[in-house]
Amino acid sequence: MTSAVFLAAVSLALAGQPRVVAPQPRLPVIRPRVEILRPEILRRLPKLETVMVYRTAPDDRWLAEGLPRAFDFFGVPVELRRDQADPAVRYAEAGDRYGEVYDASGATFCGDMGRLWPIPNLDEALAIDQGAFGRQRLLATARDFVRTVGALPDTRVQTLLLPDRLVFQRKGGETKAVTVSAAVAFRPVREGIPLAGPGGKVKVYFDSNGKIAGLLRAVRAVKPFKKMAVVPVERVVAEIRRQPIRRLRLAGVKAVEIARIRMVYYEDVPNRDQKYLQPAYEVSGVARGAVGGQQFSVPYLEYMPALTSPPEPLFMPGRSFAAEPRPSRMRPPERAPRDE
Amino acid sequence: MQSSARSSPFILCLATIVLVLVVGGLAAAQEVPEVGVEWINKCSPCGNGNLSHCDDDAVGFYNALGSAGAIKRWNWGDQWAWEQDFKYKNAPGGGTDYIYVDQVDIVMHVDHGGPGVFCFGEKNHDYCHFWCHNARWGDIDLEWIALDDCSCLYNGDSKVFQRWWDAFKGLHLILGFHTSCHDTGQRGPKFGAKLVHGWRVTSAWRYACEHTEGGGTRGAIMGVCGGETSSRDHLWGYGYVTPDVDNPTCEWWYSFSCD
Description:
The complex is a heterodimer of chains A (about 350) and B (about 260). Chain A is an alpha+beta fold. Chain A contains six helices and 15 strands.
């Protein structure tokens, strides 16, 4: 379509739209100021010239031995069938008991959906025994469970306790906050470098009584591929200074304060046919900004590719969809507000 | 007379069948969810950097529900996604939520965001930013809205209830993030797939977040309590849906780690 025809078509389409005002100037794209809070965070990073890159594949040993044990623990049948709504997944279920596997990565999720991720009403929440979420007990229970089913990869792991918080507010201001459930996350560490991203984790979920209610195992099996050259961290910092907001969907950022830069292995989403486990720089800190005069500060975290010649893109490529054109006239309301 | 008496059981039976079909059809029609999505990749006209995967999230979600039989009402992206679609009629600048966002059951918005605000890429239909105080959702139809934008449900300053309280005019849930989130393009399809698998809306959102985000990201959900808690909701046609609460006396905010 020529630009003239396109413009004519757009003009025609806009003709019936409500309250179209004269075109307004574009807002300048904000370039946030970037500050490294402590210069030593750069010095403390190990000066690596090369890092091992791994070939990845679904973990056949887990799928053959661990998965049946995990499904059995939760009462999930092992006969898997294709999910029509998400063809990347095969699943099995029996009542509230649900289990699934991603073909591309072998990532497994299973649990008792009736107890998993509870969000109770106020009275029920206040009756939850907060003693059920004792740190030592949950960590020990989670460790025992992942060892029993064989969910941990054959490497060192970092462990995190992650409580699920529920806050209630009554009209007028009374606020109550409780922990309603929790999870313990295990992050594998390879050659001193932790795995990060949407994958590279094993999580054990606890219900509101502190009992195990679910498992997520999103760890691909790896084999050493070769050592590959690493981008110097100074170059990454320069890139971040040039454009600190990359994959974050955060508006109005005026300043980024970087508190930590570390090297991680980035394991992507479970439906991706990720062939390599490659390193990335994880740059984290605080983003400060203002939208409409309202100040805010929220956590900041971006992943930057760490290889000079990555064997594949760090992140899963997307597709390109078209938006539907808006109708040339507003459609009349089908239903009126209840108070009219 | 005799003939009429003989035919009356037949007529009664026929009438019953027709009645069952009509009532059943109406009930089924009410159970079919209607969905609308808005997404912005070309964010620069409103001062934000462009994104790449907002279309993947929103349209993936839209298609997941549509493939399962939901009614696809609108899929507007970039310059066709407008702030006024979300805003109530008498809000400053005047909104048209009564024609768009509040005429469907579930909506997803994907672009940049911040505490109590989400963005657009088009300045000619009111504003670049939608503010939480312009939300009065659910007084017509809307039950659930997913804000796949950073930090819309941020509560680090304990002001999330102050920001979003008035949005609940029959709305059941707002699904979003306490922290920043990333432009992955995979969250929308996963959220949609689990909804039409019959999962609770809250579980479907948490699953989608946990499978697309990593350390440092916390998802968040807001809902109403008082009578029943709206956390028990399923998508229409896939399980129990709690009744609307027009003026809630109690609201809740839930947050979870994606690490």
